Amino acid sequence: MEKIKMDDLVNYCKNYGFIFQGSSIYGGLSNSWDYGPLGRELKENIKKCWWQKFIQENPYNFGIDSAILMNPNVWISSGHVTNFNDPLIDCKNCKKRYRADNLIEEFAKSNNVTIPVEGKSGEELVNIIKSYNITCPSCHKNDFTDIRKFNLLFETNMGVTEDTKNKVYLRGETAQGIFINFLNVQRSMRLKLPFGIGQIGKSFRNEITPGNFIFRMREFEQMELEFFCKPGTDLEWFGYYKNFCLEFLKELGIKKENLRFRDHAKEELSFYSKATTDIEYKFPFGWGELWGIADRTDYDLSVHEKGSKTDLKYLDPITNEKYLPYVIEPSLGLDRTFLTIICDAYNKEVLEDNSEREVLKIHPYLAPIKVTILPLVKKYHTNKALEIYEELCKFYNISFDDAGSIGKRYRRADAVGTPYCITVDDDTLKYNTITIRNRDTMEQEKLNIKEIINYLNKNIKF
Ligand code: GAP
The pTM is what? Predict the structure, then answer.
């Protein structure tokens, strides 16, 4: 079995209608990507899985859908306007641009040393680069500019005049929309602690070093849960969500040997965080953060309480204690999950007859197309095949393929991860039976037409 390389993955996604370069007919726009017909389906299916496990099946958790544009004071209080900066550094020799913290982290990784960068000033980062003699990965010189701070929030104007009074920000994370609705949700749903609020939506960051396809983008989607609990119970909930998140990824079918926890060392933690763990995935370019899970204490609610002058404390109806809840935040990128799923599921296999097949061994529930209907001989079997198609498409996203040999049609379905192919042949006309083929085992079985829907319901669920 051969795993996919990053360049091949970009081509695969384009050729099969998963992801196209954004604005391509105008020459593209740097790091913008459009999801095609199959990509949209896969993305929706990932969202449905997250929503099912984190909201629908969890009696403690509730979902919202907050606005992208918020009062700019939200971002001032949260600290994003002053602190959501990337430290930018340029190589004077080859003019390559880097994030200074990434440069140091990459150096630390490859030399197996720990060099904390969290919370360091620009000057401190420059000193680290000098003292370790960290060189430019491109030209190997150590001749960098000073560090400039670059704020990641995208700004725009609301209304007709462009002045600072109308300045608003595109949200840099979905989390803030949750914090500012903490009271609304708690009161309207009459909730007692602990409870969580989750949402899925777009976030925007003017990343200075986007790349690795959809790993780091300027416009991306997040699936975030903010779980509010009593101070003192937070570390227990943190441990609970750490495991819950890992189990979720395994349930999506991601191989456990490609996943690992990376607990942040004390020196690495943000000043308000009691504990943070990343779940990392082994991407073709190396281990990278997929999911951030953090104990954020009462930091977010306390800054919004102060900034909005609104009492956000929770009154415990049993003990009469009044306090700001602590927050456990599992924050997952949707596009990064998409990339993970494709990297993990893509295979090139050599079959017994020495032919090769490209196959996306994706969880059947995630598959963009669940079933492909194949009339064996176009002239004789199309009408019956269309009848079956029309019935099944009410329940599942399915496709119809009558072009080329049956073998070629199987290969096309395998390549996009379609878990089942249904072939309509003479037996279908005579006995009402079809042949259903399994993508992974390539085994075939006969079913009566009436049994198809139960068979699919049994095999395609999350
Ligand atoms: N509310 C916390 C928060 O936003 P984060 O670590 O900045 O934390 C959480 O982001 C997750 O969002 C990351 O683990 C990653 O999966 C995804 N993410 C962050 N920045 C991204 C980007 N530029 N492009 C794609 N995904 C991104």
Answer: 0.94
